[in-house]
Specification:
alpha/beta, 11% strand, disordered N terminus, single chain, Glutaredoxin, 5-stranded mixed sheet, 10 helices
Length: 255
């Protein structure tokens, strides 16, 4: 087993000291991020910049106040080393392409290199950044935001792969239900359809109107203040049919 498993032992020694005892090819620090890679990051010019920009993008978009809680990003050269590492410390993520783990005040992101792994990195970074700023987050909103922020900034409003699928679903009779989605609080039972619907609600809240954008920001601000805001559906009015129609109209009309 790799010596770098010491990264997950949260003891008094610093992250820098622990990293020195590992055989990483490239080790860097960018603000609150500690980045450890099994490959040369110079070959990926924008990767470190992407990691730094993700935090500022999320904070600005959602109106959240960042902090400096450490986030450790481990980039593996392939599935073999990733699988061994994650199987030991986050067994439920061993079959996934990437995983986020929160332990005390430190977030850990594990991703292995493969075509398009930057998308996986942005997705898990979103989880880590959100959980560094928020004491809790409903599963549907946590995953919806990660799906939204996993694509490059220029594709978030228009260009996410979910957009075409959900537009057609809206035209073909799909029935969204936010209350039902909120009840999906078991990650192991969160389906691909749940991910798409979570993305759709997040996109609707961020882009349909200033009023809905402000509503999402206030909801998240309440959580950041360590207060309980209740289910998000209760903030969208008492008519579930109206909520459904507004979301479907948004998806059909958005370009």
């Amino acid at each position: 087993m790799r010596a770098c498993l010491i990264l997950l032992t949260l003891v008094a020694t610093s992250l820098t000291t622990r990293a020195a005892r590992c055989d990483w090819v490239d080790v860097r620090r960018a603000g609150q991020f500690r980045i450890y890679a099994e490959f040369d990051l110079d070959r990926y010019d924008s990767l470190v910049e992407t990691i730094e920009e993700q935090r500022s993008d999320i904070a600005a978009t959602l109106g959240l106040t960042p902090n400096e809680n450490p986030i450790v990003v481990c980039l593996f050269s392939g599935y073999a080393s990733y699988g061994r590492y994650v199987a030991e410390h986050a067994p439920t993520g061993a079959r996934r392409r990437a995983v986020f783990v929160q332990k005390d005040d430190t977030g850990y992101v594990y991703v292995y290199r493969q075509p398009g792994f930057e998308t996986d990195l942005r997705h898990e970074l979103t989880h880590a950044i959100l959980h560094s700023m928020l004491p809790f987050l409903p599963l549907w909103l946590d995953e919806g935001l990660a799906e939204y922020f996993e694509v490059p900034q220029q594709k978030r409003a228009s260009g996410n792969p979910h957009q075409t699928k959900m537009k057609w679903a809206a035209k073909l009779g799909w029935k969204p239900n936010l209350v039902r989605l909120e009840s999906r609080d078991d990650f192991s039972k969160f389906t691909a359809a749940n991910y798409r619907e979570a993305w759709a609600w997040v996109h609707f809240l961020l882009h349909s109107s200033d009023e809905n954008n402000d509503l999402l920001r206030r909801y998240l601000a309440t959580i950041q203040d360590e207060q309980l805001p209740g289910p998000f559906s209760s903030h969208l009015g008492t008519d579930p049919g109206k909520r459904q129609r507004l979301l479907l109209d948004h998806l059909k009309q958005w370009r």
